[in-house]
Amino acid sequence: MIEMKDITKKIGDKIILKNISFNISSGQFVTVLGPNGAGKSTLFKILALLMKPTSGTLKINGVTVNESGIALRAKLGVISHNSFLYDSLSARDNLLFYAKMYGLKNAERAVKEVIQQVGLELSYYQPVKTFSRGMLQRLAIARCLLTNPEIVLLDEPYTGLDQQAIEILNKVLKTLKTEKRTVLMITHNFEEGVTLSDRIFILNRGQLVFDEPNTYVLDTLKEIYLKKVGVFS
Ligand SMILES: Nc1ncnc2c1ncn2[C@@H]1O[C@H](COP(=O)(O)OP(=O)(O)O)[C@@H](O)[C@H]1O
Ligand SMILES: [Mg+2]
């Protein structure tokens, strides 16, 4: 459960997010659409507890996020442009590091499982610095899955992925949906992005201009999107 109320983010004089409010119940899959600069990544960082809002409140599973937000982090799985991986470590050692940080039992086995899930078992002992963008993103997905997070947040996860990685990501997202995890995914990719989605947000110029259940066919949604953000945005 995510409860966001009147979240505003200012950087200097600039208002990046303005009075954003929504509740996302457990098991819901939300897709966030919006043009470049709309504030999507800023919203993502606030939800991922990587950035503090200027005002407003955020509760995760009923717990208000404040300085003690660290404990909540274990409940969150995060996939973004920053893979949070260490270059010189192997795929295995990167994930073992996280597994130990989160105090996972049977760390070695858990690591093996998620690495298989994303099809990287042949690169198990390979340093991450030799990985392609697609491989890195697959490992980032594995890292996210390692802690069995209740809530998964993704910021443009399709960017730069090859076809194989896209299919792995789609499969993982499907599994998350089947397992009734809460998912919030930011994407530019209408086709991939809304297939699994229960609910659509459109963010424009720092404001949540659309928040509806996903009952639309793709073409209707595209029309709505263009109306909401302006055709030439
Ligand atoms: N650290 C920052 N300092 C100043 N402006 C920023 C900063 N981060 C983001 N912005 C501005 O906030 C707006 C929203 O950015 P962002 O959240 O990255 O948008 P999106 O992910 O939707 O493209 C943009 O205009 C961007 O230039
Ligand atoms: Mg962004």
TrEMBL record:
InterPro entries: AAA+_ATPase (IPR003593), ABC_transporter-like_ATP-bd (IPR003439), ABC_transporter_ATP-binding (IPR050763), ABC_transptr_haem_export_CcmA (IPR005895), P-loop_NTPase (IPR027417). The keyword DNA-binding does not apply. Keywords: ATP-binding, Cytochrome c-type biogenesis, Nucleotide-binding, Transport. Residues 2-230 form the ABC transporter domain. One of its GO terms (biological process) is cytochrome complex assembly. One of its GO terms (molecular function) is transmembrane transporter activity. Pfam families: ABC_tran. It comes from the Bacteria. Belongs to the ABC transporter superfamily. This is Sodium ABC transporter ATP-binding protein. It comes from Carboxydothermus pertinax.
